[in-house]
Amino acid sequence: MKEKLERILEDASAEINKALSIQDLENVKLNYLSRKGELNSIKKNLKDLSDEDKRIVGALANTVSNQLYELISKKNEELYRVELNRKLEKEKIDITLPSDFRPQGKVHPLTNTINEIVEIFQGMGFSVMPSEFSPEVETEYINFDMLNFPPDHPAKDMQDTFYTKVAPNVILRSQTSGAQIRQMLNQKPPVRVISPGRVYRCESVSARKNNLFHQIEGLLVDTNITFGDLKGILNEFVRIYFGANRPTRFRASYFPFTEPSAEVDVQCIMCGGKGCRTCSGTGWLEVLGSGMVHANVLKNVGIDPEVYSGFAFGMGVERLTMLKYAINDIRLFFNNDIRFLNQF
Ligand code: DAH
User: Fold this and answer.
1) Residues 79 and 122 placed together within one structural domain of the fold
2) Tell me, what's the pLDDT at 101?
3) In angstroms, how far is the first alpha carbon of the chain from the final one?
4) 327, 316, 300: which is closest to 141 by C-alpha?
């Protein structure tokens, strides 16, 4: 039995040495050391030996088993390292290689202008109106009637406004001014909001006109609001947006929902007031419409014009962007030409 044990030790050691993988080692374990393995069958036969032999052979069997376990564990570690290295070598990445080119997106110039203007007015205490007060699909009632447009006003003509088939009098809004109505129906003064958004007009498209464009509406209603407040706020806006030392001019105008009404001009940024093609020789550029909220509009939304007054204004985002960057065709904003968009 002693010889048999020595042979097991020798054979098993040789097999462990030759093992090429962890699986090979498992097989050695199974053949020699498991319950059905060769060593165990010897241990099972110990009972037939004399006490003296039992002790010697038993001890030897334990030594052999311990030695084999130790050899296996060493070999296991060695094979593990070999396999790990092989894996690392295979999965190695070269971090010095140039990566794939991923073009980076940019903010659209119109979005940029909207963000900039919103920020200017936020700095003067205005907040952005909740979007549910300024739907793009609007009723004629809100877009015109509540804003004091007479029933026969030319803007209500099918030639100027997109009517839908959803229901009679449901239109694509032609201006953001309807948002004033929805805001005041939902909030009593003081009100101090701006509302940017898309508007639609049934027009033939040209370098100067698109049938979709963007406006920013402003509304301030409180006690003791005067035309002086309107001038102060809008002058400050022009100063920040166009830069200091850009003269403004308030020119009397007409809108159904404001009285008095004024259009705000800034001195032409191209010619500095001398007169050129951009300003049609006048030296001035119209940048926004404004006025004191008409008493009829306040009454329409249940605000007492004897107690409250306010002003409103509206500006075209495309126009303001074109003036700032000297862009001469409004269609460039909508063509998605990356060569144009990349310049911003
Ligand atoms: N809604 C007018 C337009 O589309 C612009 C405008 C003018 C808005 C005067 C106003 C305002 O709030 O007070 O032409």
Assistant:
1) no
2) 84
3) 91
4) 300
Residue that is written with structure tokens 């026969």 in the block? 152
Burial label, 10 (beta-carbon count in 10 A; 0-12, 13-18, 19+): exposed
Query: Cα(262) to centroid of ligand 1, in Å?
Result: 10
Q: Measure the CA–CA gap between 87 and 179, rounded to whole angstroms.
A: 65
Q: Is residue 96 in some structural domain?
A: no
Q: Do 146 and 291 belong together in one domain?
A: yes
What are the angstrom distances between the C-alpha of 147 and each of 143, 180, 193?
A: 7, 9, 17
> Nearest to residue 274, comparing CAs of 266, 264, 284?
284
* pLDDT (tens digit per residue) in 10-39: 999 999 999 988 889 999 999 988 888 888
Ligand 1 nearest atom to the CA of residue 217, by list position? 12
Q: Are residues 274 and 126 in the same domain?
A: yes
Question: Separation of 215 CA from ligand 1 center, angstroms?
Answer: 9
**Weakest mean pLDDT among 100-104, 173-177, 280-284:** 100-104
Nearest-atom index, ligand 1, CA of 199: 4
Ligand 1 atom with the smallest distance to the CA of 180 is: 12
199 and 166 housed in the same domain: yes
- Residue 290 CB less than 6 A away from ligand 1: yes
Decide: 314 in ligand 1 pocket, CB within 6 A.
yes
Handedness of CA 170, 172, 177, 183 (dihedral sign): positive
Counting the structural domains of the chain, the total is 2
Atom of ligand 1 nearest to the CA of 291: 13
User: Does 165 lie in the same domain as 51?
Assistant: no
Last residue of a domain, one of 45, 63, 91: 91
On whether both 119 and 68 belong to a single domain, the answer is no
Domain span holding position 47: 2-91
Question: 236 C-alpha to center of ligand 1: Å?
Answer: 19
